[in-house]
Amino acid sequence: MAGKIDAAARAAALKDLKGWQDAEERDAITKTYQFKDFTAAFAWMKAVAQVAERMDHHPEWRNVYRTVEVVLTSHDADGVTQRDVTMAREMDRLAGAQA
Amino acid sequence: MAGKIDAAARAAALKDLKGWQDAEERDAITKTYQFKDFTAAFAWMKAVAQVAERMDHHPEWRNVYRTVEVVLTSHDADGVTQRDVTMAREMDRLAGAQA
Does A52 touch chain B if contact means CB atoms closer than 8 Å? Predict the structure, then answer.
């Protein structure tokens, strides 16, 4: 199991990703997605859920109508790992032009 | 559009529902569901999402692995309406023996 990425790698990853930032008061990264409506938001969540199952790595997320707030962290490593960066990238890819 | 239910109707509805309670600091009702794992939690969310679309009434919900925290309120009525009670009942029905 890979451990936490170091500060430089994390900064580089955040710079590379769009709209992701360090979470407040937690060792995690976060992003809020906005979709056209609930249908679009939940369709995206369904696609992400499949990735989560495949990776065995699950987001913390909160959905209110067309908004989805996501927090990614790796509980086993007690912080942000490469798996979180990979998941973030997949989420952005699946959101495509929608978010 | 139906308005807020009165205190007596709300108390009766909460008594009838299992595990639902008044939300803190908001005019809403809330429940936390626990499922077997993420797959079961998200399968339930998919079923609820279909009901939400059909009712055009959407939950606020937060999923962390096998847990889903739900908050129901009717923004147009600025409080809890019969639609929230109906949605709560549907959620419980769909959760069946799982939650």
Answer: yes
Distance CA B74, CA B4 (A): 8
ipTM above 0.90, yes or no: yes
Residues of B in contact with A63 (CB under 8 A): 59-63
Q: Which of B39, B53, B60 sits opposite A53 (nearest CB)?
A: B39
Q: Give per-residue pLDDT as tens, A44-91.
A: 999 999 999 999 999 999 999 999 999 999 999 999 999 999 999 999
| Type of residue at B90 | E
The pTM (predicted TM-score) of the whole model is: 0.94
Parallel/antiparallel/unpaired status of strands A60-64 and A67-72: antiparallel
Number of A–B residue contacts, CB under 8 Å? 34
